[in-house]
Amino acid sequence: MTSSAPTPDPDEPAGSLTDGLVTLRSATAGDPYHFVVLTQDRQVGHVEIEDLGGGVGELTWGIEETHRRQGYATRAVRLATVHALRTLGLHRVQAEVPAHDRASLRIAARAGLRREGLLRAHRTAEGERHDVVVLARLTGDPEPETQEGFIGLVNSSLPRTRLIAHVVIRDPQQRVLLAQVTYKPDWELPGGVVEPFESPREGAARETWEELGIELPIGKLLSVDWLPPWRGWDDAVELLFDGGVHEPDSLLSTFKLAPHEIRQVEFCTLDQVRERCLPGAYRRLAAVLGAPEGAVLYLERGATPGSPEPLV
């Protein structure tokens, strides 16, 4: 996620903004509030900024159905948000998203808008009242790509106790697939934070698809691990699911890694896991790999509760 200033596109009319893949072109010449969304010279949607007065703007957007799930909406909303704050000089940019619209909530969050609250029965659609989630970004908010900004963004949109789902993918030699991520030095299992209203198994499958580009069948639960507050994060519960045993070459050839998140992946021995992962992650994996067949472990900080070993 990035919020660097939008770049004027030299090949587009004045007033166009681009991040290299998505371009916002003014819907009418000189209009800095209403844009069509283009990629590779194709119009795929629209985004608008409404000036509500008092330095506050409100975002609305839409992407044509055939062009959804390709990241265009997130990029367009991100461009419009930064444009509103830096070019239009607004103090606050907000969006009101129906609480049931999980895709739009995800788009707003990834574009750097923090979840602020719920307006109950705020809108009427098809004769029924619906709740609306308010998300916003202020000029003084830390940049979303910084650690402080990222933590604040995630904490605003998720339950206070985070739920994390990772997948244990092994090869016939019992090596485990690890991913080197772009945003921290330690390596991780595929997976990540489970979103609101998403089951842990669904979250594991979605994160694996987003990071590795494959739809991997998610197997049985292997462990449940409670993690205390750490480095600004609230406490969390981490679940490990079985991702099966695979031949490395055939599996790796199917991957399409997300370049903004994953640098590389590798099947690793337990000794390599110890070297590359945080101590708690190593303890957790060692416990799971050493457990009897069919066992589901309950752990705290990667170890059996009451373990005499010092936990770091």
Walkthrough of the structure:
The structure is a single chain. Strand 13 and strand 14 (236-245) form a beta hairpin. This protein has helices spanning 72-86, 102-110, 147-157, 200-212, 248-252, 270-276, 279-289; strands spanning 7-8, 17-18, 23-26, 34-39, 42-53, 56-63, 92-98, 114-125, 128-138, 162-170, 176-181, 191-193, 221-227, 236-245, 262-268, 297-300. The longest helix has 15 residues, at 72-86. It has two domains: 7-157, Aminopeptidase; 162-300, Alpha-Beta Complex (Nucleoside Triphosphate Pyrophosphohydrolase), CATH 3.90.79. It has 312 residues and is an alpha+beta fold. Helix 1 packs across helix 2. It is elongated, with a radius of gyration of 22 Å. The two termini are 30 Å apart.
